[in-house]
Design goal:
Elements (H helix, E strand, L loop, with lengths): L4 H5 L3 H4 L3 E5 L5 H13 L15 E5 L10 H4 L1 E5 L6 E5 H7 L1 H12 L6 H6 L1 E3 L23 H18 L4
Parallel strand pairs: 1-2, 2-5
Antiparallel strand pairs: 3-4
Helix pairs in contact: 3-6, 5-6
């Protein structure tokens, strides 16, 4: 009996290898993008996922300044933190946070979507967020996943079918 490809990889270092993924946050909805990033940081997209093991990938987010929110969140959302002293509650509106620290908005959203356990801090260390397009991790990226990030499975399948039809037309086949 011939082993299946998934059996050949098994629990090897190849299965646990961390890849670098990039996400273009421009005009993407904050919550939907944060859930996809959290899934990638946890490693739930891998067949060897185990909630007790940290097998997620690195994620580099670019264009954090142009992330979108739905509804009236841009006017109403507040980010709160406390200094620990009496009367030390600080509230920062979304619009001011977007001007000063846009990467902190995405980091807080992703942090809220990760499980609250010992692995949370380690997973957040693998998240790199940049307000513009420039980042120092270009050499680490194996494939640009920004185009397929946020797309549904049907959209990805439809795009691959269109490419196959175009390839057949170029080759001269009907």
């Amino acid at each position: 009996m011939r082993p299946q490809p998934s059996q050949a990889i098994g629990q090897t270092a190849l299965a646990y290898a961390r890849t670098w993924r990039t996400v273009d946050a421009s005009n993407q909805v904050l919550g939907r993008m944060a859930t996809r990033i959290a899934i990638t940081l946890m490693g739930k997209h891998k067949p060897i996922y185990d909630q007790a093991n940290d097998c997620g990938d690195y994620v580099v987010v670019t264009h954090a300044r142009s992330v979108a929110v739905t509804g009236r969140k841009a006017d109403q959302k507040l980010y709160r933190h406390h200094s620990g002293f009496p009367g030390g509650l600080k509230e920062i509106p979304y619009s001011k946070m977007m001007e000063t620290k846009p990467e902190d908005i995405i980091r807080r959203a992703v942090s809220g979507m990760l499980p609250k356990n010992r692995l949370r801090a380690k997973r957040l260390e693998r998240l790199y967020i940049y307000p513009d397009a420039e980042h120092p991790y270009e050499q680490n990226l194996l494939k640009d996943h920004a185009a397929e990030f946020g797309k549904t499975f049907k959209e990805q399948a439809g795009r691959s079918e269109d490419a196959a039809v175009e390839g057949a037309e170029v080759a001269g086949r009907p």
